[in-house]
Write a structure and sequence with these properties.
- The complex is a heterodimer.
- By secondary structure, chain A is mainly alpha-helical.
- Chain A has one domain.
- In chain A, 74% of the residues lie in helices and 0% in strands.
- Chain A starts with 12 loop residues before the first helix and ends with a helix.
- Chain B has 2 domains: 216 residues, P-loop containing nucleotide triphosphate hydrolases (Rossmann fold, 3-Layer(aba) Sandwich); 124 residues, Alpha-Beta Plaits (2-Layer Sandwich), CATH 3.30.70.
- In chain B, the strands form 3 sheets. Chain B has a 6-stranded mixed beta sheet, with helices on both faces.
- In chain B, helix 3 crosses helix 4, helix 5 packs parallel to helix 6 and helix 9 packs across helix 10.
- Classes of the chains: A mainly alpha, B alpha/beta.
């Protein structure tokens, strides 16, 4: 071995984020078992929900022709929300292991660990959406807006998923204990799916739920997917969802990055 | 051993008055440390002495409450990003992704440290071979043994050939064979001229490698010197006499005791091995040895070996840290030496290099 340091490039956030994203995807490739939760379980849930509830007659299906058509967009969004805590748990695993010190000791961009992970998650959410769209099509789900609509559904899933994933990273680092975080993070993800229009129109929910469900990002995302599938007003849900995604990514993202940098 | 602190050479690591508290706990209470380029400094101290806190500050992982740290002239606190390019860190816990292969880890870390893909791939193969993990580079790290993991972690720190390396208890928890392998790697790096700071709880590790040992206790550096200096600072040495005839042991013990005016408890007669050991105080080692030789000669006692050896580093360490406040950075005087019983409990076998100090 020879001595002397190799000239080190200045930290570049894009390059470093891409490297971290590559790491996350490589982990999935080498450990296919880790793909079950984000990619296989959503498909199973979609098939189960549609098989059990798809033929119910509903009074108000918010523009949808059948409950099946109403339910499927809700399940798209529900799955993205349910998948998002894995980001936080992954960041916390890194933070609680020697990997955090290794990354912090490198001349790399500080924000890249989080940005890279969320970048990889965006790809996973996109894959999840495409897979669900394919299975939903087999189950009879139709997008009137065609290919642009499909792209829209993927974008909404990625947006919701990354938004909640960012928030989960901050919350996980705040909780600090991986085991506790696992128990704490999944519960609100489940509750959020019910406190929304994912399974029933807001007007049909219990009265105490309605104010919460009305402003929920899950409601906005599900209604937006419905608008793209069956037509209907998209501007309102789009605005609501946009605000939520911005709110869920910018502030929690900055706080999570700060917490990651501060270390122990 | 070369002169560890040569005047005129800018230190590779220069820490001054570093203070760090965690709530009510003062982890570092004004620590200063200077490491000359190309040397290895050992931070020796019991658990909680502040060793890890200090190396974390040097490696930019933690910020001190006050004080100054420079690495190769770069202010670590003002320019942490630049300092990170100069420092390799091997922490107490392997900084590796268990789910990835060894090669994936090395390449990722190398690239994050600024290497191009091609160079990172080449360097990973080179280090894998050098550290004896070449055969396992394409296996997930979770299948590695503890020793392989530490070596891979050290390899990861060396991807960009950092001129300064910080090793936090690199061999803690390893089996003897793995420790030895890691020692070989560290010895090789020292030959290459890498400046290193190594924290350890193992005295033999400090004794083996360190150009300078800094003894930390309760957040302060309580002693600094070569292992040999620290040992002599305890102020007690051991005269070891091997006799031709075991029958002469009582006479030899009496002669040495009388000539050196030692309390009976400090002279031990080992009739079984035909030897006598005497624990002596004072700086005049040559005089002591000559006096012992004269006493034996006057008594007509034939010897096969006569040696003055230093106390072990264990003994020095205990003397320096053992519950005594305000020892400071000055030599321990004979009257501050540890309880006499302890000196005799230490193993007698010493390495040849320590025999008969010039």
């Amino acid at each position: 071995m020879t001595t002397g340091s190799v000239a080190v490039a200045r930290p570049a956030v894009w390059r470093d984020s891409a490297l971290i994203a590559g790491r996350q995807l490589r982990v999935l490739r080498l450990n296919p078992g880790r793909m079950i939760y984000p990619l296989v379980q959503p498909v199973v849930l979609l098939v189960l929900f549609v098989s059990v509830l798809g033929n119910l007659a509903v009074r108000h299906a918010a523009g949808a022709e059948s409950y099946r058509e109403f339910l499927i967009p809700g399940i798209f969004v529900q799955n993205a929300v349910l998948t998002s805590p894995t980001s936080g748990l992954g960041v916390l695993r890194d933070a609680a292991s020697g990997v955090a010190d290794r990354f912090r000791s490198l001349p790399m961009s500080r924000g890249a660990v989080l940005a890279g992970r969320l970048g990889a998650d965006a790809i996973i959410f996109a894959a999840q959406a495409i897979l669900l769209l394919a299975v939903a099509t087999v189950l009879g789900f139709q997008l009137r807006s065609g290919v642009p609509g499909m792209a829209g559904v993927v974008a909404v899933t990625v947006g919701v998923g990354v938004g909640f994933a960012t928030a989960s990273c901050w919350l996980a680092l705040l909780i600090g204990d991986p085991e506790a975080a696992e128990r704490v993070l999944f519960f609100p993800a489940i509750a959020l799916a019910f406190l929304s229009s994912a399974f029933a129109p807001v007007s049909e929910l219990a009265s105490w739920m309605r104010p919460i469900a009305g402003v929920s990002p899950v409601t906005a995302a599900a209604d937006l997917v419905r608008a793209m599938a069956a037509g209907g007003p998209a501007a309102g849900p789009l605005l609501q969802l946009g605000c939520w995604i911005a709110g869920l990514t910018i502030v929690p993202g900055a706080l999570a990055t700060r917490r990651w940098q501060a270390g122990r | 051993m070369s002169d560890p602190i040569s005047p005129g050479v800018a230190p590779a690591i220069d820490a001054a008055d570093v203070v760090k508290s965690f709530g009510a706990l003062t982890a570092l209470n004004g620590v200063s440390l200077s490491v000359a380029p190309g040397t290895l400094a050992a931070l020796l101290g019991p658990n909680g002495a502040g060793k890890t806190t200090l190396v974390r500050i040097i490696a930019t992982l933690s910020r001190p409450d006050s004080g100054r740290v420079r690495v190769l002239g770069v202010d670590v606190l003002a320019q942490p990003a630049r300092a990170r390019g100069l420092i390799g860190l091997t922490g107490q816990y392997a900084g590796l992704d268990e789910a990835l292969t060894g090669r994936d880890n090395l390449v990722l870390i190398g690239r994050l440290a600024g290497l191009r893909r091609r160079s990172a791939v080449d360097r990973a193969a080179e280090l894998g071979a050098a550290f004896g993990v070449a055969h396992a580079l394409d296996r997930a790290v979770r299948t590695y043994s503890g020793g392989m993991r530490r070596r891979l972690d050290l390899a990861a720190s060396l991807m960009t050939r950092p001129p300064v390396l910080v090793l936090d208890e690199p061999t803690t928890g390893l089996d003897p064979a793995s420790r030895r392998q890691l020692w070989d790697v560290i010895a090789g790096l020292r030959t290459d001229g890498t400046t290193m700071v190594l924290t350890t709880q193992y005295l033999d590790e400090a004794d083996r490698f360190a150009d300078v040992v800094h003894v930390l206790d309760r957040g302060r550096v309580i002693a600094t010197g070569t292992a040999s200096e620290l040992k002599s600072r305890v102020g007690r040495s051991v005269v070891e006499i091997r006799l031709q005839h075991a029958a002469a042991v009582p006479a030899a013990a009496a002669a040495v005791r009388d000539r050196l005016a030692l309390p009976p408890a400090d002279v031990r007669a080992h009739t079984g091995s035909g030897s006598v050991t005497a624990t002596v105080a004072g700086a005049d080692a040559t005089g002591t040895l000559l006096a012992a030789a004269a006493a034996l000669r006057a008594g007509g006692i034939a010897v096969t070996g006569l040696a003055l050896r230093q106390p072990s580093l264990d003994e020095a360490f205990l003397a320096l840290t053992d519950g005594r406040q305000g020892v400071g950075d000055r030599p321990a005087r004979a009257d501050e030496a540890p309880a006499r019983g302890r000196a005799r409990r230490l193993p007698a076998a010493r390495r040849g290099a320590d025999r008969v100090r010039p």
